[in-house]
Amino acid sequence: MTTRDMAAAVRDGTTTSAALVDAALAAAERNADLNAFVTLDNDGARTAAAAADAAADKSGALFGVPIVVKDNIASAGLPTSAGTAALKDWVPEADAPVLARLRAAGAILIGKTGLHELAFGITSNNATFGAIGNPWAPERFAGGSSGGSGAAVAAGIVTAGLGTDTGGSVRIPAALNGIAALRPTVGRYPGKGIVPISKTRDTAGPMARTVDDLVLLDGVITGGETSVEPVSLAEVRLGVAAPLNADLDPETSRVMDQALAALEKAGATLVPVDMNGLMELNGKVGFPLALHEAKTGLVAFLAENGTGVTIEELAAGIASPDVKFVFDELVLGPRAIPDAVYEAALHTARPQLQALYAETFAAHKLDALVFPTTPLPAQPIAGSDMNVLLNGREVPTFQTFIRNTDPGSNAGLPGISIPAGLTSDGLPVGLEIDGPSFSDRRLLAIALSIEAALGPIGAPPAR
Question: Which residues form the Amidase domain (predicted)?
Answer without folding.
Answer: 20-444
